[in-house]
């Protein structure tokens, strides 16, 4: 059952108290299947919240802090998340299709089957993160930093990878240069060499 807007606003207020008091008062925000598109979250913190299967499509959330947030199966399609912080967040199964993620920070983030298709990830910080079966098809990763991150069975067909930083320090287990339906898997050094060619392509 969808929560009324006033109930969500009350929960956002309680979460703000919880953050401001370092957990002494208020209550952590834990919601499931909430559509935030009609709610102005600009004045509310969302770090350390649990936002399961919730909708943020098309919203302007520039510089929003999702530190240690649980975002399982939430959607951010075509959302402006430039400079947003996802440090230590759990973003598995989330959908960032067409999102503006320029300079977003995904340090120590978990991304299992996360969709970044056609997302703008230019200069994003994808450091020390886990990407398993993540979908980067047609995403713009120019000048993104991938140091110490792990990539396994990630889809990269059509991705722009010029200038990607930190390939030598990344853990490249495997990549899929085909499709989900017809995979073409490259493993370890073969995958790394393929990525290196894309990175240095003018």
From TrEMBL:
Gene3D superfamilies: E3 ubiquitin-protein ligase SopA. It holds the Pfam family Pentapeptide_4. It comes from the Bacteria. Transmembrane segments: none annotated. InterPro entries: 5peptide_repeat, Pentapeptide-BTB/POZ_domain. This is Pentapeptide repeat-containing protein.
């Amino acid at each position: 059952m969808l929560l009324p807007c006033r109930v969500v606003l009350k929960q956002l207020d309680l979460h703000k108290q919880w953050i401001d008091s370092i957990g002494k008062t208020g209550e952590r925000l834990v919601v499931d299947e909430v559509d935030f598109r009609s709610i102005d979250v600009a004045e509310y913190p969302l770090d350390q919240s649990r936002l399961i299967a919730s909708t943020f499509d098309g919203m302007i959330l520039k510089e929003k802090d999702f530190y240690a947030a649980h975002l399982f199966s939430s959607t951010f399609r075509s959302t402006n998340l430039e400079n947003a912080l996802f440090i230590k967040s759990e973003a598995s199964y989330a959908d960032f299709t067409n999102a503006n993620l320029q300079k977003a920070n995904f340090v120590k983030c978990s991304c299992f089957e996360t969709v970044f298709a056609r997302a703008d990830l230019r200069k994003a910080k994808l450091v020390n993160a886990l990407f398993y079966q993540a979908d980067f098809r047609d995403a713009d990763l120019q000048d993104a930093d991938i140091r110490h991150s792990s990539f396994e069975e990630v889809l990269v067909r059509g991705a722009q990878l010029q200038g990607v930083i930190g390939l030598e320090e990344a853990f490249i287990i495997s990549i899929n240069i085909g499709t989900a339906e017809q995979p073409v898997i490259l493993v370890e050094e073969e995958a790394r060499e393929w990525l290196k060619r894309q990175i240095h392509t003018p």
